[in-house]
Design a protein that fits this description.
This protein has helices at 2-7, 49-61, 74-80, 82-86, 90-93, 110-123, 127-151, 156-168, 173-177, 182-204, 207-223, 230-241, 249-270, 285-292, 295-304, 321-335, 342-360, 378-386, 390-393, 399-420, 426-436, 441-448, 454-467, 474-484, 492-501, 506-517, 521-534, 539-552, 556-568, 575-582; strands at 17-22, 28-31, 42-47. By secondary structure, the chain is mainly α. The protein folds into two domains: 2-423, no CATH class; 427-547, Alpha Horseshoe (Serine Threonine Protein Phosphatase 5, Tetratricopeptide repeat), CATH 1.25.40.10. A three-stranded antiparallel β-sheet has the order 2-1-3, with helices on one face. Helix 2 (49-61) packs antiparallel against helix 7, helix 10 (182-204) runs antiparallel to helix 11 and helix 15 crosses helix 16 (321-335). It is elongated. The protein starts with a helix and ends with a helix.
């Protein structure tokens, strides 16, 4: 990875100026290299555009460093998986397992897991370090996007302005502020590098560029399977924008790269231990696809008019009028553009749809959320389309539209800053998720589990159960609610159901409590054995298991083994307890 960054450093450290000047006769001229002569009566230029983009990203996102956990997967990867993250040998293990579960998982994201492992080496369990890396990844994507626009011969001022809008766009906030959102920024970073080196190879036929493009394509695939769309998106750019031929030699070489990367990816994945949980993938894929098609309109609305953002959006609770207004606005922009470039429009909108396709094909039974971080790559297609409309075509010669666009960027930054506040802690996060997605059983459950008023929380939990009794973790929270209401025995069936649905290990702790109440000490010990196999350092669970071996089961061998395991994991055992174990018959 260090070698990759060294090889690509020219992409980040370049010095450029974007200028526009007005001569005394009124004719506008453009320069993109040296500063404009001060003989011009009026001019402005952007010196060091990359530094301005970096400043925009840091000013907007650095305040989020002090935010806490949202309890939407971030705590799992940082807290629950701390033992996994500590071991650097797991950088290899990540390629052999699923994201959430080593053997039974629907998600294979090895480089995401590796990014958390590397992050853990200096950040440990403090979330600030992970947030800072997320910001750096976003900044890297912003700079690479600017470089890509320049490679496509887009005017430098237009490239800067579009990159600025991308940097501060509120719809991309979740990809940066939410820790697991880095999966999309990391994939985008590799895909943008893949695009740049592939275009470089198409133009210069340098073998080195071909090798780097194949390397970054492979990295993007191991980050997220959505990267399989990248070669098709690149093909649109090359054929429609760069006017390359389908069967020219440079293209054939890149087709070979695509195939080779796919072969390597599937070879490595096929050797992994994970096996998809088919019980979670139910329903008709074609029906789910057509059900999700309106999401295109909703997403367009969030790109052009980002006023109804949600930390946990669902299709059912997202309004359409912003999307309809966005379609009308886009049509008007195209209509009033005199010099229409349909090749760019087809390439840009095709890029948008291609990277949106995995979201449309996602089964509802697996994931009903329409997260906004999934727009991280698709929105680039909209910028490609807009770059050849009057909005940006006139950017090269006129100041007024430029100032308007910069004002829009400032407004977007303000919307972004406001939306960031919903990620500051778990209660705020899930309250906004519930308010914006009241039909989501998951959001209702998570908010109900955190609301301060217990009676209100119980009401929300019952509502969540009525929305979807099979929602992941819902039976666990419902069982906890019953235990808090002193309905210990009634809670058992809910914990057992959760174990069947998701295998959530926390259920074992409460099932052990129920078994102890029923005086089924063997079952209680079995549940605690399963629990401590996952949470090895939980003192209460380990102490309870040790006491069960000593007092109820009277099993000296297991008591001694448990005591040694506790000591190995850093759990102190009083000397008198050790003496009692040794004195057992």
């Amino acid at each position: 990875m260090c070698l990759c960054l060294w090889r690509s450093k020219f992409l980040f450290l370049s010095y450029e100026k974007v200028t526009i000047s007005m001569s005394k006769k009124g004719a506008k001229t453009i320069s993109a290299s040296s500063p404009i002569s001060h003989n011009a009566s009026s001019f402005f230029y952007i010196k060091y555009p990359l530094l301005w983009l970096a400043a925009a990203v840091f000013i907007l996102y650095l305040p989020t460093l002090h935010f806490g956990f949202t309890d939407l997967d971030d705590a799992i990867f940082i807290k629950d998986m701390h033992a996994y993250n500590e071991d650097l040998s797991n950088l290899v293990t990540s390629f052999q397992r699923g994201v959430f579960n080593a053997t039974k998982d629907n998600y294979y994201r090895p480089l995401f897991l590796d990014s958390i492992i590397l992050n853990y080496q200096f950040a440990k369990g403090t979330i600030e370090g992970y947030r800072f890396v997320n910001i750096l990844l976003h900044l890297g994507c912003v700079i690479l996007l600017y470089k890509l626009f320049l490679r496509l011969k887009i005017d430098k001022l237009a490239a800067f302005t579009m990159s600025l809008l991308f940097a501060v766009h509120p719809v991309l906030c979740q990809a940066v502020v939410w820790i697991p959102g880095r999966n999309d920024t990391l994939m985008a970073l590799f895909i943008l590098l893949y695009f740049i080196f592939s275009i470089d190879y198409s133009e210069k036929q340098k073998t080195q560029s071909l090798l780097w493009s194949s390397f970054f394509l492979l990295l993007s695939l191991f980050t997220k399977e959505t990267a399989f769309i990248a070669p098709l998106a690149l093909l649109l750019i090359q054929l429609l924008i760069l006017k390359k031929k389908v069967f020219e030699k440079a293209q054939w070489m890149q087709y070979c790269v695509w195939i080779a990367a796919a072969v390597v990816y599937f070879a490595v994945r096929s050797s992994a231990t994970l096996k998809a949980n088919d019980e979670l993938i139910k329903g008709n894929l074609l029906t789910d696809f057509f059900t999700r098609l309106p999401l295109i309109i909703q997403y367009l609305g969030k790109i052009f008019l980002p006023f109804n953002l949600s930390v946990f959006p669902v299709l059912q609770d997202t309004v359409y009028y912003f999307g309809i207004a966005a379609v009308i606005l886009l049509a008007a922009i195209l209509f009033f553009t005199k010099e229409k470039k349909w090749n760019w429009y087809v390439a840009g909108f095709g890029f948008f749809l291609l990277f949106l396709l995995p979201v449309l094909l996602l089964p509802d039974s697996l994931n009903q959320q329409t997260f906004e971080h999934r727009l991280y790559l698709p929105v680039i297609g909209i910028f490609l389309l807009l770059s050849q409309t009057f909005i940006f075509q006139k950017n090269a010669t006129g100041k007024k539209i430029t100032y308007i666009l910069w004002a829009i960027a400032a407004f977007f930054a303000a919307l972004n800053f406001n939306h960031q506040q919903y990620f500051k802690d778990a209660l705020t996060f899930w309250e906004q998720g519930y308010n914006t997605s009241p039909h989501s059983a998951y959001a209702t459950m998570m908010y109900g589990a955190r609301v301060e008023n217990k009676q209100e929380g119980y009401a929300l939990m019952r509502k969540a159960y009525s929305l979807n009794p099979d929602e992941k973790y819902l039976n666990y929270y419902y069982g906890m609610m019953l235990q808090n209401q002193d309905s210990l025995l009634e809670s058992e069936k809910y914990f057992l159901m959760e174990k069947k649905n998701s295998g959530y290990y926390e259920c074992d702790f409460y099932l052990a409590k129920i078994a102890f109440k029923k005086k089924d000490f063997k079952a209680a010990a079995a549940y605690l054995e399963d629990y401590t196999a996952t949470d090895k350092t939980n003192e209460m669970a380990n102490n309870n298991l040790l006491l069960l071996y000593m007092s109820e089961l009277k099993d000296k061998a297991k008591a001694k083994a448990q005591a040694k395991k506790m000591q190995d994991n850093g759990i102190l055992i009083p000397q008198n307890v050790l003496q009692q174990i040794n004195a057992m018959p």
